[in-house]
Specification:
Radius of gyration: 17 Å
Shape: globular
Number of strands: 0
Mean pLDDT: 90
Largest sheet: none
């Protein structure tokens, strides 16, 4: 039992480190009025390529960063707990591929529109955990897949380009 606690605590280290960086960027942007959103991802523009790296670290307001923090912590911990051998690889592939996909396929109404936030990373991590949990047919992983579907099942609506 003690080993499981240690493993769970170790599994939170990288997600907590990532959140620390995310919150530090948010704090410095807010405290020093740096307007770091200008380094967000601007689709289809050469200037916007930097956003592939910066987009998940930038947030518009307190509500935005808080709503991204809990899923990053929960999904990241699940990733590093159940998939410790490939967790870094999955995390960084998800991080980069989300930015590339947004840069390639996102629509912008104005040339100055930028995309910021870690939502794409959250979609990728939840997608990986759900699909992998189902494919591997392992009870614990399948349970994680069901839990994520229950907790974050409505995120599918955020990916669809619907106007209400």
């Amino acid at each position: 039992m003690n080993q499981n606690k240690d493993t769970l605590l170790k599994s939170t280290l990288f997600p907590m480190f990532f959140l620390l960086i995310m919150w530090m960027v948010f704090y410095f942007d807010l405290a020093y009025k740096l307007n770091l959103a200008r380094f967000g991802l601007s689709p289809h523009s050469f200037k916007g390529l930097i956003g592939i790296l910066t987009m998940p670290l930038l947030h518009g307001d307190m509500g935005h960063i808080v709503s991204n923090s809990f899923p990053i912590l929960i999904l990241g911990t699940c990733l590093f707990y159940f998939y410790k051998e490939i967790a870094f690889k999955v995390f960084f592939i998800s991080y980069i591929s989300c930015g590339i996909l947004v840069w390639l396929f996102a629509q912008s109404k104005h040339a100055t529109d930028v995309h910021i936030g870690a939502s794409g990373l959250i979609y990728a991590l939840s997608g990986f955990l759900v699909v992998s949990g189902i494919i591997r047919k392992h009870k614990a992983l399948f349970g994680v897949a069901l839990l994520i579907t229950f907790l974050y099942g409505t995120i599918i609506w955020g990916v669809l380009p619907l106007d209400y």
